[in-house]
Amino acid sequence: MPDSTALIATAGRFTDPLVGGALAERGVGLEVGADGRLRVTLGFPARGCAAVLAAALQQFLAEQLPGTETAVDVGWDIAAHVPAKLPKIPGVKNVLAVASGKGGVGKSTVAVNLALALAAEGAQVGILDADIYGPSQPRMLGKVDERPTSKDHKKLNPIHAHGLQAMSLGFLVDEAKPMVWRGPMATQALMQLANDTLWDGLDYLVVDLPPGTGDIQLSLAQRIPVAGAVIVTTPQDIALTDARKGLEMFRKVAVPVLGVVENMSIHICSNCGHREAIFGEGGAERLAREAGTEVLGHLPLDIHIREQADGGNPTVVAAPESANAQAYRDIARRAAARLAYGIPAGELPEIELLDD
After folding, report:
1. Within 13 Å and on the Cβ side, how many CA atoms surround 275?
2. What is the SS3 assignment for 250?
3. What is the pLDDT of residues 90-125, one digit of tens each?
4. What pTM was computed for the model?
5. What is the CATH number of the domain that holds 120?
């Protein structure tokens, strides 16, 4: 059996791109069990890459410690990243906001698939539809006609769909009924949905925000403990301009921006396979570079993604082995890893509202 101290010290020098450096430097848990197996404990769910990481680390150990044959087990333990000065939502470790500067960029489709991807990677996940005026998650989850139950007429049980816990105003009102509410009413509705839902042991609550930088977004940052935000954009300049505003809004309220997702990045013709960047190229990279964040991934303009979401069976569960589903899972791992190792939760400053 190899020496445990040497094994852990050597394993600690192994670098992993998701972790963002050497395992020991990044605080990854390393221990050797009584059976001589090296156990690696990540801070993010990694079912899709655990075997690859284990094999790479095992090879690294064999090279660094000749004659050593050590089995490697990779697991994860997801910690809570709660911003200072804000109380936790009961039953929720981490709140992840999915936002966009403008509508029509596919934010809600990204949000639901991100939630499903985190679940596929091994986390307990919920989704909160914060788009009070245009809730779309009930249809995307195939639960348009389902209504939440309540034992005490105060707290709501979340709707269960595809392994997710879900809540949306769309579960409480008719789909065709418009919500003609002023900002304070919408804000109060969001707070009730977040805090009066009986979330059960969630590692992540993904919040599908409405587009823009208005009351809902500010209230979310001021009153809900958002651990990190994911910005969704398309490559075109007008979308990038608005996405930059959304990104800077989160920065101003000390919500870490985990990265940018470029949706509708490229169109692939279903007949001939021709690839065409309909909305331009390199936009997300420019935005991330200018804002000091990173691109979490690119998603294609694909009719299957739209059909699957409209049909209540989003891509990650409808076609789990497809390239599109794997892209969502890559994005989920990067976002969760960046939350765990890349960006500390900040103090919430006072928000100055400028009328200009």
Report:
1. 6
2. helix
3. 999 999 999 887 778 889 999 999 999 999 999 999
4. 0.91
5. 3.40.50.300
